[in-house]
Each structure stands twice: as structure tokens, then as C-alpha cells.
Amino acid sequence: MAKIIDGKKISQEIKDELKEKAASLQAQGKTGALAVIQVGEDPASSVYVRNKKNACAYIGIDSLAYELPEETTEEELLRLVAELNEKEQVKGILVQLPLPAHICEDKVIQAISPKKDVDGFHPQSVGAMTIGEPGFLSCTPAGIIQLLKRSQVEIEGKHCVVIGRSNIVGKPMALLMLRENATVTIAHSRTRNLAELCKQADILIVAIGKPRFIGAEYVKEGAVVIDVGIHRNENNKLCGDVRFEEVEPIASAITPVPGGVGPMTIAMLMSNCVQSIEEG
Ligand code: NAD
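Above: the input record for the complex with nicotinamide-adenine-dinucleotide. Below: its predicted structure, written as C-alpha cells.
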């Protein structure tokens, strides 16, 4: 039976630590706000935006909401980002993705000042992470590192297979595991013999974006399995990329969905915001 890695509990611990830190920064006169921009009314995005505002309220930092209509032009959005870059009190800028198809996401991400890039998506943040310089870390992968460390999972020297090579999860995840001295393999849609490769992993991080894709045949006895996927099944219930009930008896530790990786992303966003306030 695997140990269940409780992301809800660990994210709560982190948020409580951040709440204390934000209060002590405030006592030193250091405050700031997170600006959250949403374009259009995608229901999933609205839920994420609401959760981010609630997390700010919990930690004790201000949030400024910019809810823009679907027809907002790229130019208008870039103008707003430029204004927020200049605003002293705004310490973090978050543009909720995905953006409507007529707006280039890369252009918008690159317009955010790296000093306020609390999502860690700006090429400068990614470059800094790659060479181990200070900067904002991408929230979901940084959250997974915290999950592993706070669950006493040893990373150094372990073979980690990351399935997925997206810019927001797979690639930064692999880099952060490398930074922790794991031996890292990245698998993706063109990888051959995926099951055989995954079976060699001491730590298997699954960000494949396909509901319940990974079953027992991909997992070595005693491996640690981190499921990044979030999907809704036909009964509108949340599930991950992993067939939990099949993998749990083989793994030594595993994250559930919900209550695993998901809550960590917002906790790490808050961590980046507090870091930004601290750095002024
Ligand atoms: P994505 O679709 O951009 O990337 C999926 C990756 O999986 C790709 O790099 C692709 O090469 C790889 N892949 C696809 N099919 C494959 C196959 N058959 N064999 C091997 N590799 C294959 O997705 P993403 O944005 O990286 O997100 C991955 C999952 O994580 C999604 O379910 C997403 O909803 C979830 N997610 C969760 C959080 C969170 O906070 N928990 C945050 C971001 C993403």
C-alpha cells in the first residue's frame, strides 16, 4: 500500500507559512498586490481566477482583478500589461491562460516584466531557472518539488522519468529535478517503448494530459508516482492521468487527484508573490 502524498495538507502548511511571512513583511512596510487578468469567460479559467483571489485574501496580500471581454484586442491587453509593469504597488502580474485565439500568448507573456512574472513563464525566468540563477519558478513543477521534499522522498541520485515536455509542466519539471540531482529522462509523444522506460523510474512524474492513461504496466514496484493530470470524467468527477486504483498497490507513494498536485500550484503562486513583495 502506497503512502498517499497529501497535497491539500502540504499546500495548507505552505500557505500558513506564507501568511506569517506576509504579515512580517507588512510590519516592515513591505506590501504589494497581485494583478490577475482574465480575458473572456471560460468557466474553468473563472474558477482558477477565483481560487487565486481567495488565496491572496487568505495570505493577506491584495489582489486586483481585471476581467476583460472576449473581444479585447492584443494591443489593448499589451497596453494593460505595460501599465501594470509601471505600477509600484503591483508586485505580480498573472494573465490567465488560455487566451482567446486572436491573442498571441507568447507575446503577452514576454510583455510582463520579469520582476513581476509570478507564473514563471517569461523566457528570462525560464533561462534563470535553467542555469540556477534566482528568479520565479514555474508554479506546478515547483509545487511538485515541495510535495516530494515535504514527504521525505529522496530525489538525489534517483532516476526520474517525466512524461510530457510542455513549457508549463514537463520541461521545467525535468529541469527542477535535475537541479535536485536526479537523473532525468523526458518522455513525450514520440517516445518509443514508453511503458518499458517508465518501469525504470524511481520517481515517475506524469503530465501527459490524457485521462487515466498510465496503469500498472508503466510502474516499477516501490516507485513514487506524481500525477499532474486534471480531467473531468463522464460523471463530472475529477481524475488524473494515472489509473490510481491500479497503480497505488505497486507504488511506495502516490499523489491522488484531486488533492495532490492541484492545490500546490496556487500555493507556489502565492510563494512567488510573497517573494516579489520581499524583493520590493
Ligand atoms: P500538454 O498537452 O501541453 O502536454 C502533454 C505532453 O504529453 C506533451 O508534451 C506530449 O508530448 C506528451 N504526450 C502526449 N501523448 C503522449 C503519449 N502517448 N506518450 C508519451 N507522451 C505523450 O499538457 P500540459 O499543459 O503539460 O498538462 C499536462 C496535464 O497536467 C494536463 O492534464 C493538465 O490539465 C494538467 N495540469 C495540471 C496542473 C495542476 O496544477 N495540477 C497544471 C498544469 C497542467
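Notes for the reader.
Residues 140, 163-166, 168-170, 187-189, 191, 194, 207-210, 228-231, 241, 261-262, 265 surround nicotinamide-adenine-dinucleotide (CB under 6 Å).
The two ends are 46 Å apart (CA to CA).
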